[in-house]
Amino acid sequence: MYSNKNAYALSDTLKVNERCSHCNTKYRIEPSFFYGAMYVSYAVGVAFGVAAFVISNLILGADLTVTFIAIVGTLIVFMPVIMRLSRNIWINMFMSYDETLANKNKKTS
Q1: Does some domain include residue 108?
Q2: Is residue 3 part of a domain?
């Protein structure tokens, strides 16, 4: 889906291909389509934060200051992954994989 496979190449993190190389699905649906992914990104960020809290505070037994630093660090480190994941979730809410279309496009190419 993305031009660059590396999510941590920050200049290319959100560059989306025009079409899927496998099934020819159009990714660039409309100019502001991925704005809704911000809401999904919030939910995914909360999930990552809760996971960081559970690991640092409940499992490792760290105090609240260290736990807070762990949550903020987790969100900063995983920000590119969260952005891409939220875009993938958002587009999958509106589009689904069509195997017949993919097979048809394989035969023509």
Answers
A1: no
A2: no
Residue ranges making up the domain that contains 83: 10-27+36-97
Over 60: is that where the pLDDT of 109 sits?
A: no
What H or E segment, with its residue span, contains residue 74? helix 64-77
Residue with tokens 């704005």: 35
Confidence grade of residue 25 (pLDDT, cut at 50, 70, 90): confident
Give the integer Cα–Cα distance in Å for 23 and 66: 46
CA torsion angle 36 15 91 41 (round to 10): -40
- Indicate the number of domains in the chain: 1
Q: State the residue for tokens 């991925």.
A: 34
Tell me the backbone φ, ψ of residue 16, rounded to 5 degrees: -100, 140
Tell me the whole-structure pTM to 2 decimals: 0.79
Task: Determine, yes or no, domain membership for 70.
Answer: yes
Domain-located, residue 90 = yes
